[in-house]
Amino acid sequence: MGLWLLLLLLHFHLVLCVFLPAPFNVSISSFNLEHTLSFLPGAQTPSDASFTVQVLRSRKNSWRPVAACLELKVGQMCNLTKAFKDLFDHYRARVQAVTPNKTSNWTVSGWFQPVSDTVLGPPDLSVSGCGNCLILQLRLPAATVLRQNLQLKDLYREFVFHVQRTRDATQFRLNLPYEEETVITYLQPGVEYCVTVSVTSLFNSITVPSKPQCAFTSPPSQRSSLPVVFSLVGVFSVLAFLLMGLVVYGSQLSFKLLSQRIPRTLRVF
Prior knowledge:
Elements: H1 2-18, E1 19-20, E2 24-31, E3 34-40, E4 50-57, E5 60-65, E6 78-79, E7 91-99, E8 102-104, E9 107-108, H2 114-117, E10 124-129, E11 134-139, E12 156-165, E13 171-176, E14 181-184, E15 192-201, E16 213-216, H3 226-261, H4 264-268
Parallel strand pairs: 1-8
Antiparallel strand pairs: 2-3, 3-6, 4-5, 4-7, 7-8, 7-9, 10-11, 11-14, 12-13, 12-15, 15-16
């Protein structure tokens, strides 16, 4: 019995000495097909520990190390963009903590497909007025070359423009193909509109819109203040006329009262 207890204690001692706490919260995030692996170190992970990353491709059932992510430190992330070469394949990643004489168990991420799990961000949008219309100018993100000479713009199907009139929040939507410059016509002159844009894709439904960009169709009319000015001038004119009438009427009334109070003899004299 004592021998078995001794062997059991020795086993636990070896386990505690050899294994490090495993990383956790291993996840893959992606924006415009730039893929990033993040993770957190396990509790009580030594400060001198580093972390190594490997990836698994579903079509090739073997783990491969990521050359740029073999000695990560706490807080560092791993860029997997080059490791995920096939947009339509599925990948997993795993992370292990390492010291000179210890290793942790591997912690594995969920499956990730680049083309469907990335977040497609909006292009840069600028808006300017042209009378009774708006000119929308688009600039696509940097032309990252993907598998088989595909570029990010090749994944786009349409651009969705949401247009809102600032004055009363009236809005409408346009689905248009990509053009560097688009003109929206038949709008009200001298009125401000705000526009956002997002993209649609055949392979992906995770998109985010741009921030609203606002512009007047044309400069607001300055004539709108003239009726107010004329109205004020008219009001002051009427008031001045009434005041003058009161002064004249008051003078005549004073003269009449004064003449009534003067004795008749004085008036004859």
